[in-house]
Amino acid sequence: MKKNDWIIAGIIAIIAGSVFIWNYIKEEGVEGEEFVAEIYYDGELYESVSLREVNKLVVVETTIGTNVIEVNEGNVTMIEADCPDKICLHTGTIKKANRSIVCLPNKVHVQIKGNVEDEIDAIVQ
Amino acid sequence: MPLYNKFANVSKTKKTVFIALLISMALVLSYFERFIPLPTYPGVKLGLANAITLTALYFLNFRETLSLVIIRIVMNAMFVGNFISFWYSLSGGLLSFFIMFLCVTIMGKQISTVGISVAGAFAHNIGQLFVVAFITKSIGVALTFLPMLSISALITGLIIGFTVKMLIPYIVRNVFRNEH
Q1: pLDDT of A87
Q2: Are B152 and A13 in contact (CB under 8 A)?
């Protein structure tokens, strides 16, 4: 291992660390705020579900495929998907703001959001 | 300019066979790496095929390595992949190759195989996140995966780097033994 190796590893660690902190700050959300699970298809909002819902199932049926998302008292899980890689099913349950489950083959993604206007995402979309 | 440039003058036939061997090894590695259990975090993988790209950088020039990368990705998609995994590998594989090539070109002997490999693994994950951001049309979603993927890149890059470090003297001794 040479000096430049450590520099590269250091740069990557710094990038990872700063994005981690950035994500962590956003995950905290605002006290008492209501979280919603926003379900997107092809970058467009498909359905928005309050996290207070109990055993609510959302079926996203598109020309590409079908995904079933369960929202249950603050927990969001992708419980069914007919995509080839099943990465979205392996992601498991998400609870915190700004966490997401992505099913790329079906172009579906779910992200938990607070009610505050999200600057970064507003610019991107 | 490859680091082992004394092999620049080997016969065309030998070079073609060498490239073909590297591609076939990359395909076998990509196929078998799925049987190695890893944490099932989206996008985390060993990236064994990256070891082949890295090895190729030491012996082949830019054009030859680039064609090797593209051929192995297209062939891999034909054998096992699907539409999305093809874009994943293409975006990740190309970005990883360009970054590793830059590392070798700019720093040359000032950087070891391990550093190049780590940079390549990280670039591979960034390339994949580009695809995520492109399809979900949201950079925020892609960023949520970045910290975990970077840590995985550091670890897998280290493993691949040390592997290639041991592989290169072997190739010099055995594959090109008549050239020096």
Answers
A1: 82
A2: no
